[in-house]
Amino acid sequence: xxxxxxxxxxxxxxxxxxxxxxxxxxxxxxxxxxxxxxxxxxxxxxxxxxxxxxxxxxxxxxxxxxxxxxxxxxxxxxxxxxxxxxxxxxxxxxxxxxxxxxxxxxxxxxxxxxxxxxxxxxxxxxxxxxxxxxxxxxxxxxxxxxxxxxxxxxxxxxxxxxxxxxxxxxxxxxxxxxxxxxxxxxxxxxxxxxxxxxxxxxxxxxxxxxxxxxxxxxxxxxxxxxxxxxxxxxxxxxxxxxxxxxxxxxxxxxxxxxxxxxxxxxxxxx
Amino acid sequence: xxxxxxxxxxxxxxxxxxxxxxxxxxxxxxxxxxxxxxxxxxxxxxxxxxxxxxxxxxxxxxxxxxxxxxxxxxxxxxxxxxxxxxxxxxxxxxxxxxxxxxxxxxxxxxxxxxxxxxxxxxxxxxxxxxxxxxxxxxxxxxxxxxxxxxxxxxxxxxxxxxxxxxxxxxxxxxxxxxxxxxxxxxxxxxxxxxxxxxxxxxxxxxxxxxxxxxxxxxxxxxxxxxxxxxxxxxxxxxxxxxxxxxxxxxxxxxxxx
Lengths: 270, 257
Known about the structure:
By secondary structure, chain A is mainly alpha-helical. Chain A contains 13 helices and 2 strands, in the order αααααααββαααααα. Chain A has 2 domains: about 1-150 and about 235-270, no CATH class; about 150-230, no CATH class.
């Protein structure tokens, strides 16, 4: 199995983490969802050259990782795995925006580089927060929380099914690839024709499977609505969790902690 | 209780591509019977099963489940009384967790939350999967998946259990457990299978299908003695009814004669 697909299948692991039993795991999914959304919105709302103001925000994911007992290394690897997307988005900034913004002695840093770093920081913060949310809550619970907040039912069902059959489908693709590999000997690269045929088969198989699943649903009384029994309760811990974090975010948004801290220290030193 | 009866009359089905699936199948299975449906690959076993809960509509002929002739109007009632366990549990377990999956049917029946929880706990206990309730289905072993798939159907409290290859892909011990479990059910059972030893264990009656027609219908023990019939339907005597290769006098294998 190649590395990338191993990583891909590894998504199931973050769901295993959600089976933990810390205080954070037990919180109502909706509370965690709101806090994470508030976090993401605040981080994204900074202006395009913000760097120092963003740094304190790492306190949110770090606290959750520490208190939830999550493996930080694993999460970091997952973030790096998707980082090329962010880099691709930001990579042209240094080329286009060449106006010098900061000078360290003779070293001039252009606005493009600053915004590049800013974008990358934002990416790391938001993706980590989302991954932490999944690892603390579980993908399905997050979906159900969204449903409780009034996200249209069809979207929720799509997401649930997507997650359920992601593994089945990727295993199927994996088996087909293996079968091809074992019979292709020295020809490492897949030929176009073979690829088309493999992809086509996968599609047809998926359709067949969809048909069988639909059949299974029908034979258990499916009438177009998926009902899920889940009790959710917002209590004192949830309220404190959400309010506490939102206050912290607002504070860090309007009060640049590092620059004030810097001023404080340099002020003392002088 | 007439509602546990399954009856088909001159059932014919032709697939859209023109392949004949069933060419006139008439049978009557009465309350509490346990029937094995055997035959070669493509004999029409699964096609027949798919008619029993109204998924396929016959080209000609009729299906009756209990008091209802199967029509679009009676479909809901029929699906409620015919519980269908599919061959691949991955097709049957589509919800996020085992609990949600087992609760899917009862919730669709409109039962209250408490009643659903009670039922789910009860059927999971029955199939010995109580501890799996919170697990996602893709993390279960084949044997566990099969048990849960059966639980999802039992939760609807059907009168008739229809199963497609329940013992396929199971290790011998899981297979044995499943057989013992199925023995305890009092439902009318219709089991399509290639596992003739299981048929011998579970079903007093066997129906042999061959190329879309019934070629034999009778007592399992008697039919499985009939080597000519079995060979004609691409079957073989159950292993248990063959001679022991170690202690019996040497004799050529019946099929290779």
